[in-house]
Amino acid sequence: MKEYFYIAVSSAFGLGLSPIAPGTLGALSGVLFHILIVLFLPIKMQWLSLVAVFVLVCIANHLLTPWAETYWQCSDPKHFVLDEVAGYLLIPIIFRGGELWKVALWGFFLFRIFDVFKLIPPAKYIDRNMHGPWGILLDDLVSAGYAALIMYGIRWIKPELLL
Questions:
Q1: What is the domain range of residue 63?
Q2: What is the pTM of this model?
Q3: pLDDT per residue over 73-125, tens digit each?
Q4: Would residue 18 count as lying in a domain?
Q5: How many structural domains comprise the chain?
């Protein structure tokens, strides 16, 4: 029973078990958390709630990484997607304002591009050289930071794309 719970949590409730794009599908659970928080909580509670979910996902990432690496018999297993969930969740924490669906769409799209391709340092360095819970998580957080910066640039150059 404990193993099923670990699989459910570490795969973002099964989304990461997909044979096609498990990280992308796993990140969608972060989008879902974001949308649910914005739609159902008062505005004064939204940012703190996003931070709380983000912290919980990061803690779960750190606690479950050793188990996941043993269970899937590799470092940074593709079905272990808590790093993608945390990565996406960092975007609405950093990027404040904007219309929900536009922020979610741009944030998800940009995050996945930066996370998949890791073109800008230090994401590629972290991905290749750091291991364990921090290595798995940090490259996604850096990619989320890049995505949020691009979103601020978009808002500055063409605000109607996000507002």
A1: 2-13+23-161
A2: 0.96
A3: 999 999 999 999 999 999 999 999 899 999 999 999 999 999 999 988 999 99
A4: no
A5: 1
